[in-house]
Design goal:
This protein has 318 residues and is α+β, with helices and mostly antiparallel strands. The protein is built from ten helices and twelve strands. It has two domains: 138 residues, Gcn5-related N-acetyltransferase (GNAT) (Aminopeptidase, 3-Layer(aba) Sandwich); 161 residues, Gcn5-related N-acetyltransferase (GNAT) (Aminopeptidase, 3-Layer(aba) Sandwich).
Length: 318
């Protein structure tokens, strides 16, 4: 494209990627606040191959648009999340389409390199509530809506009581519980849309290895010494700075099938909410599949969570 060049994203590009994220939030507020630490963590996530699966578009020496693929292991198909953006002042010049076309070519190559060239492929794009331009761009490029997710918030000023569950111990997460929590996640989310099993590496980088993970707010449930439930909580300083108050974000919550319906999730969540409140958090937030097979949204409503906005996942088959 005349006037622009492209190359793979480098780890040293993190400040430029941060500026693209901040500019998107200024243009279309979606309560998505990031900082340099978070950008660098995202670039180092398992499934991201910067050399083979990313594109940075430059005007002169400055990055004006970026796109990345994050491959997700699956047995029956090859899937990848697609992330990126273009500085608002450079939109409507074909840069976004240039990035998307390039990433589709890279997805084909990555699928073949993984020995899965004969499997169906799917690119998935997460679009936050309020990002109308991203939704319109994806639709124009042939993406279709695959799923909706509700972002919910509970005011921690309310007093919640942690119920006891016979035969279940609720306690704060510890490193010794980590792999048990991962295995419980893989079982609990096996019947959830879009979920793929968490490897040790992916689980650790997402939670215990992240600067944003809060073990003091996270919980596990045990039955006879085995982890059967988990609540994994993060906190983002960039959101605290932007909003003027602290929020605990419940990143994952679940329980294995054998203990569902006994109040295990409610016990873990309420105990976590108490810890967040006592630490000075004003709110707790979480996301839930609008069509969750466990009816999780109803549980969260009973615990005081209310709808903030709706996000969607759009997909493109290839």
């Amino acid at each position: 494209m005349d006037g622009f060049t492209s190359r793979p994203v480098l780890t040293s590009d993190a400040p430029a990627l941060l500026e693209i994220e901040l500019a998107a939030e200024r243009a279309e507020p979606a309560q998505h606040f990031v900082d340099l630490v978070r950008i660098r963590e995202e670039l180092a996530q398992p499934g991201i191959d910067l050399e083979q699966g990313s594109i940075a578009v430059l005007s002169g020496e400055s990055i004006v648009g970026v796109g990345l693929l994050q491959a997700r292991p699956a047995e029956e198909s090859w899937k990848a999340g697609l992330f990126g953006g273009v500085l608002p002042e450079f939109r409507r010049r074909g840069i976004g389409r240039m990035i998307l076309d390039g990433l589709q070519d890279k997805a084909l190559a990555l699928r073949a390199r993984a020995g899965q060239g004969d499997l169906p492929g799917e690119l998935m794009m997460w679009v936050g509530g309020g990002r109308a331009s991203a939704a319109a761009f994806a639709a124009a490029a042939g993406f279709s809506s695959r799923r909706y997710f509700f972002e919910m918030r509970a005011d921690l000023a309310q007093d919640v009581t942690t119920p006891s569950v016979d035969g279940i111990e609720i306690r704060a997460w510890s490193p010794a519980d980590d792999d048990g929590a991962r295995l419980a996640y893989n079982e609990a989310f096996a019947d959830h849309w879009g979920s793929t099993p968490m490897t040790v590496d992916r689980w650790r980088t997402s939670f215990a290895g992240s600067a944003f993970f809060r073990p003091e707010f996270s919980r596990v449930a045990l039955a006879d010494g085995t982890v059967v439930g988990f609540v994994m909580v993060a906190e983002f300083p960039a959101a605290t700075e932007a909003n003027g108050h602290r929020t605990g974000y419940v990143d994952r919550v679940g329980s294995v099938r054998s203990v569902r319906g006994r109040g295990v999730a409610a016990a873990m969540l309420t105990d976590s909410m108490r810890a967040q409140r006592e630490s000075g958090c004003r709110y707790a937030e979480l996301g839930v599949d609008a069509d969750s097979p466990t009816g999780a949204g109803r549980l969260y409503e009973r615990l005081g969570y209310v709808l903030l906005h709706t996000n969607q996942v759009l997909g493109l088959d290839f």
